[in-house]
Amino acid sequence: MINKLVTNDLPRPAPRSSEPEVLASEIIERLTYRIGKDVKVAKPHDWLTATILVIRDRVIDKWMESTRKAYQHDSKRVYYLSLEFLIGRLMRDAISNLGLMGEIKDALTSLGVEFDVIAGLEPDAALGNGGLGRLAACFMESMATVDIPAYGYGIRYVHGLFRQQMAEGWQVELPETWLAHGNPWEFERRESSYEIGFGGSVETVGGYEDPERFVWKPAERMIATAFDTPVVGWRGTRVNTLRLWSAQPIDPILLDAFNAGDHIGALRESNKAEALTRVLYPADANPAGQELRLRQEYFFSSASLQDILRRHLQQYPDFTNLADKVSIQLNDTHPAISIAEMMRLLGDVHGLTFEESWTITRNTFSYTNHTLLPEALESWPVPLLERLLPRHMQIIYAINAQTLLYARKEKKMLDQQVRSISVIEEGGERRVRMGNLAFIGSHSINGVSALHTELMKETVFSDLHTLYPDRINNKTNGITPRRWLMQCNPGLTDLIRESIGDEFLDDAEKLVALDRFAEDAGFREKFAEIKRQNKVRLANLVAQRMGIRVDPSAMFDIQIKRIHEYKRQLLNLVEAVALYDQIRSRPELDWVPRVKFFAGKAAPSYHNAKLIIKLANDIARVINNDPAVRGLLKVVFIPNYNVSLAEIMVPAADLSEQISTAGMEASGTGNMKFGLNGALTIGTLDGANVEMLEHVGADNIVIFGKTAAEVAQARSEGHNPRAIIENSAELSQAVSSIASGVFSPDDRSRFAELMDGIYNTDWFMVAADFDAYAQAQRDVDAIWSEPASWYEKTVRNTARMGWFSSDRTIRQYASEIWRA
């Protein structure tokens, strides 16, 4: 019946008018009847909600049309499983993609409402930590844009990633309350609810002649309920669904316990369920945190797979064609337990044999790896998995046995190779390696930049690559130009349209036509003026939020990303101290005025990352208040980095810092956003910087430091950072100043341990790359001192960044992995 309803021709609602007068009338109607407010007493947040509801109605029309089309055309669906979706604010995105920005602004103006004011009130959906979650959001938008039927699956975190505040320069984590006043974009789908189990036991059933079946009897159960958010593609081509799961108890209150006086204990089932979807990335430094993280990953994986299989059976009689109609992409290792869960559902619930289930599973799943860092390739203690997911542990052992027997007997692999590919890590504490499980259970494993993909083959997955040589492939990341150019930088977008026409709006690679304007002095002048306007906007934000005055005429040098030692904010800070010393020592030189901006969050349990934030704020306090610097250098750490802040900082950047230790950044997408908005990149040959170098040209990017191969060689041969520091006067003085407490007079030993790490091991090559980095910064100064040269290079960056559109990435996934 459901299938007939969506495939038959049914009456369609009449197209809605987009005239400003009609939109204004609809906004007042929503304000009155949906929000219950009179125009005279309506507050800005009321106007925001009313406007969203008007836009949402138009989105719904296209959403339903997209769903009908997928059924009518018997389309293959892509399911993107990600623990993070850093989607940010949605209103501007939807309005822009529907082509209604001018009409909506006119409608609100006629009502005495300023669009930018109410747009700024929309909460950021903080459902991600950084690049991984933002990539997932870009991919969802691009899948809708290139007309691929798709669902994104994740968790509806009540608080998401923490809100960051500063207390005496230290990071303080506070709950992010993006759902406090509801979410007008989402729809609860009570009919799409699934039971999720934990713990318990496994029983074997079946007679002597009957096939053996396994029945898992969980000790603990809860309900996953779906909340759907529409994701609009460019020009409304398609509207796909982001389905987020919320946990609910089966018994919200234990009445017997409550009536017996145990009022707190009576709510324990509700508390367990609420805790599951309350916070993104609970700290996992303790066993309770580890268990909660694993529960989250299984919870959303199981709910998503049950939903996928239910939808498939609505349309087809069985699962023999599942891999032809369904493609499931695992975004990193977080949803890797899905491999075992799919085997359980197909075998234990739907009665397929192990061999049938395994063939379907491997042909349906594909896996994106985002890191070469061992700590980021998740693994779980075997006892934890056996206790929490006993049936899945049995399935994992069965998968592992089959794989190891194949490796030993068919491929003649040696003991060390067999140990390397095993899903069970036997050295020390026995752990389940989720990266290996995802690799073995998928038909495609992709890296996210050319360098990262090759390093995958050589390092973390070298023996698995030997076992399955045809599985690893590359899909270099991309960004959506709708949000990261058209929306965040309308001034530049208008200039480009005036210069080369509108083709780039539909195909970002058409931006290359802008290349010829790099040598046009008149165009460069307009380009520079737009950059200055964006810098003024950022300067005003910093003044309002932090009380710090910065000069928009100075070079805006920006590093915004998750705080991590391999991303080397520390290298940037040490160079800032060295530059500070030079400016004071050589005041007669012609120094380039520079503002170093930082923003990003440190994981709550990551001590050194939080110490780096404190160092940035301590350095800023000293430098910004020293009259000897004469305003030539300022350091600003802006708290609570999120998508909305990035949309202001990215267009304002003159210099983009992409300085990770070579071989450790999988791709990066901030580098692409900055380049697209006309920033010059200073970076290492790491991640997608390698491909950016190829596309923008060596003259239009500043590359420094050791390559990935040189980093590996230095580590293997015994790197001696102490000798390097002692032979570099600037580095030695900077490290000594920081270690001795020049920037922390209240606690002179505060940063001693951090500097000892550079002196003694320098794992992240801060000392090794410092002199090259400092020289590269002086090269940047020289380019900046010649404005014609500077803007010629930055115009070429914008012109040549079209290849890094997520539309291109998604088309490659669709043709080479998903066959969609």
Task: Output the keywords.
820 residues, alpha/beta, Rossmann fold, nine-stranded mixed β-sheet, six-stranded parallel β-sheet, globular, disordered N terminus, Alpha-1,4 glucan phosphorylase, glycogen phosphorylase activity, pyridoxal phosphate
Outline the structure in words.
It is an enzyme of class 2 (transferase). It catalyses: [(1->4)-alpha-D-glucosyl](n) + phosphate = [(1->4)-alpha-D-glucosyl](n-1) + alpha-D-glucose 1-phosphate. This is Alpha-1,4 glucan phosphorylase. The modification N6-(pyridoxal phosphate)lysine is found at residue 673. Its cofactor is pyridoxal 5'-phosphate. The structure is a single chain. This protein is α/β, with parallel strands linked by helices and 820 residues long. The chain folds into 2 domains: 20-178 and 187-476 and 812-817, 3-Layer(aba) Sandwich (Rossmann fold); 490-804, Rossmann fold (3-Layer(aba) Sandwich), CATH 3.40.50. 49% of the residues lie in helices and 15% in strands. The strands form 5 sheets. Strands 5-8-9-2-1-10-11-15-16 form a 9-stranded mixed sheet, sandwiched between helices. Strands 19-18-17-20-21-22 form a 6-stranded parallel sheet, with helices on both faces. A 3-stranded antiparallel sheet has the order 12-14-13. α25 links the parallel β18 (594-599) and β19 (633-637). The protein is globular.
